[in-house]
TrEMBL record:
Molecular-function GO terms, alphabetical: ATP binding; ATP hydrolysis activity; branched-chain amino acid transmembrane transporter activity
Name of the protein this chain belongs to: ABC transporter ATP-binding protein
Coiled-coil ranges from the UniProt annotation: none
Lineage: Bacteria, Bacillati, Actinomycetota, Actinomycetes, Micrococcales
Matching SUPFAM superfamilies: P-loop containing nucleoside triphosphate hydrolases
Keywords: Amino-acid transport, ATP-binding, Nucleotide-binding, Transport
Amino acid sequence: MTLLELKDVTAAYGRVQVLEGVSLSVPEGGAVGILGANGAGKTTTLRAISGVVRTGGSIVFDGQDIRGLRPDQVAARGIAHVPEGRGTLPNLTVRENLQVGAYLRKDRRAIAGDIDYLLDLFPNLAARISHNASAMSGGEQQMLAIARAFMAAPRLLILDEPSLGLAPSTAKSVYAAIRRLREESGIAMLVVEQNAHLAFSIVDTATVLETGRSVLTGTSAELKGRDEIRRAYLGG
Ligand code: ATP
């Protein structure tokens, strides 16, 4: 079943039209990537879903039109967004960040269970449970941002360039954890990623954006087999 469906989504910053018609869909439990050059509109597409920018077209989540809802309303429907450049609260500890992530939940026992699960998934976070987020490395902060979003118990996790600014080995371990999170939780994911090698390591399908339009959608295997994708995103 389709969980999220965008049809002909448009968006502008002031008078500058940035999205001209983006269509994509994420199945229940599926993982979908968004590829595209700098400025193609990837981040804006995610912000359109989360209600941060105003949009035209249609955005349907779990059978209901969510276009025009405020970010907090979108979050309450079950969409958690990890923004580009991380999403942690720097002056709170690791544990406090995880607890804040669960602020809409009341199931204390399940919250405690999820924290234990995440500390097992991300041993670096376990080792720094009482440290402030600001004291951690970039990779650890990215892991914490993902873990914090997971604490909301979302049905869809939106990730904006989880590898941004990380050393290649760190980016790899962040993706390994995302992959395990996906396999173990069955949570649906929508991932923007410049590094297509990393994106293809977790997504089933991807949509390519060019100047604010979706121009190509296919399975990871189909896309990896196409010359223009190899040239533009996979280094030849
Ligand atoms: P990148 O990988 O560089 O983040 P992107 O594909 O995510 O690229 P967007 O960030 O969605 O692209 O930006 C699309 C276009 O909108 C770009 O031309 C960008 O300069 C412009 N833009 C982004 N944010 C704003 C803003 N707040 N105000 C005005 N223009 C913006």
